[in-house]
Amino acid sequence: MVHTSANGAPTRITQGAPTQGGIGESTLRPDGTLKVTGEFAYASDMWHEDMLWGQILRSTVAHAEIVSIDTSEALATPGVYAVLTYDDLPTEVRHYGLEIQDTPVLAHGRVRHHGEPVAVVAADHPETARRAAARIKVEYRDLPVVTDEASATAPDAVLLHENRTDPHAAHVPHPNIVHRQPIIRGDVERARGRADVIVEGEYVFGMQDQAFLGPESGLAVPAEDGGVDLYIATQWLHADLRQIAPVLGLPEEKIRMTLSGVGGAFGGREDLSMQIHACLLALRTGKPVKMVYNRFESFFGHVHRHPAKLYYEHGATHDGKLTHVKARIVLDGGAYASSSPAVVGNAASLGVGPYIVDDVDIEAVALYTNNPPCGAMRGFGAVQACFAYEAQMDKLAARLGMDPVEFRRLNAMSQGSLMPTGQVVDSPAPVAELLRRVKAMPLPPEQQWLVAGEDADLRQLPGGLSNTTHGEGVVRGIGYAVGIKNVGFSEGFDDYSTARVRLEAVGGEPVATVHTAMAEVGQGGVTVHAQIARTELGVAQVTIRPADTQVGSAGSTSASRQTYVTGGAVKHACELVREQVLDRGRRMFGAHHPAWATAELLLEGGKVVTDGGEVLADLVDVLGDEAVEIEQEWRHRPTEPFDLRTGQGFGHVQYSFAAHRAVVEVDTELGLVKVIELACAQDVGKALNPLSVTGQIQGGTTQGLGVAVMEEIIVDPKTAKVRNPSFTDYLIPTILDTPTIPVDVLELADDHAPYGLRGVGEAPTLSSTPAVLAAIRNATGLELNRTPVRPEHLTGA
């Protein structure tokens, strides 16, 4: 430590100790214990004195003209304070949307999907609000439903949105196509002539729900200045604010938003849910209004993953080199645009996978239909494409008589390879190494139930405790897959984040405070921000302020971008704070030691030290009574839109890669599947928190497993109504369904990113699904071209 004399000169210098809890360490999450013990305050736990409860009336049909709405009985219900319909909205701005403002706050003229909001009620008790909503009489006149590509693009198709003026409208072949993106490189027709083997496939990917456990919740509190304070579980505070303010007719500064406890998101909270509804009711009644969806309503209250039909053709030479890929990807966007245009861009640009292919012809489109709206979900367009192209790679390997892993490694891209968009992959792309590593992992022992005899654990068998088999008809299968996912917002989007960092002396210790608008949805960003501050500022104590709109935008917690972009902003702001502190130290103590002027100085262990570890001053002495605070924006390098005709362009800032090996055991008589192991190898650039990284990889892998064997929202093809809006009928993996997930983490730095890191959360969601399907095919010999795989697909029943 440093001791100073009366005139401020150091009297004794010793070596400083490194700061603990910085980047690269598995620092525990500050919210972890609270969450697992049930003490964490989620948005649904919020309470305000004298608050009302909001309730939405949703449409019972998917496509119909609204003939009339009668709210008189609802208004007459004791305890009801307000009932609002489209005609009660306060301004002429009555639609919202992330990119295209096509979603009505409340339905007007017609409803376009099952469960669309028609009216909202505020009452003094949630049951009163529910009963009042049920008393609203809505007369519908049915309209023809649009449910697939054929009905959406027919010459006489009913248009979901007439007179479109959005930027994509002029570039699509039909008004019911939200967006179209081709990717054209080389000459596929000529390459087809070089192919010795050509395989084709048609694939179907089901509609997956984010299935977050914490339902949509919010609390709106009217303020004395005529504005409103909104406490909300969301993924993107400032995007919400941008959409809410015009509808309410308020300046953004009068809508103060604070993030409340979020119980998972996975893309499903990127669009608005009840934000505007709660604010409207609060401003109308002059009272706080709380809204909480039940599970049934949650299925209608957020977007889902786009279901897709994918048509692929791959060619290869006898020696296993890919010649060409031709594909058409049709995504069902549902009734409103949400983020469908960006999903289309991802599906198209990543549609070949992590392989070197010189000749490519891909077309991706998203449709407007009367099915439930679809938008962001973990993997964002790349998941559907990966399922199809990896099935194609297995088909080609089989036709060529090659090992499926070695065939993939032969065609794997690497640093310096060209994407189908013409973009050079300018950071490590260890695709072949990931495949090698995942294949080299030890396999789990076979038929463990035979070894255990009478002590066998039935949970290890297909069917589990239902005791459907003791091993009869059970066959093992092994499958592999690898995927590529972009990181961050793409196609020219101004992707930035803001961080405010303050460093001050409190109680004789240096304390850093980090303030961002980043939505902590479970990804562990608050942990990483504290680690960055400790590393850059050399302090032990870091306070993370609640996320709100009193600081600049942090962008969305999506696209695997927050550690990269908001982490980058925190790092940058900390660096600027550090420079100010060091400049202050030079002015205060520079005359007493030459190292202040000549050495590279750092902050470590609460001290100012040289790069050789020599302590020059206590940080609290430099800070004194005056804090240093900086708010700063930070951007990654710019991207550019894809060409609308060819799809060429520097569209993505970074790519991430993961490979999986699935081991399954299938009861071929009953069509039951038990996934025994789902091993993953992934390059993360730099693991800022290794434990969190492993958790993200295992979580993404489990969501990929879910859509492989059980998860699907079932929509009636005749009525476009959702059949299974509950966790009774929409199944997600439980702990009994989740296999062992060994993880092998590579750390190959991306020099363009803070600390060399690479976005982690989405890549494992891609390749886990096709790996499981490949393993089931390996066990059964069946083609299996759709997800999820159900028992009847395996038994032919």
From TrEMBL:
Identify the stretch(es) annotated as Disordered.
1-30
Xref: Pfam families: Ald_Xan_dh_C, MoCoBD_1, MoCoBD_2
Entry's transmembrane regions:
none
Task: Give an example GO molecular function.
Answer: xanthine dehydrogenase activity
Q: Which Gene3D superfamilies match?
A: Aldehyde oxidase/xanthine dehydrogenase, a/b hammerhead, Aldehyde oxidase/xanthine dehydrogenase, molybdopterin binding domain
Q: Where is the composition biased (Polar residues)?
A: 1-18
EC?
1.17.1.4
Keyword Oxidoreductase assigned to the entry: answer is: yes
Can you say what this protein is called?
Answer: Xanthine dehydrogenase subunit D
Q: Which gene encodes it?
A: pucD
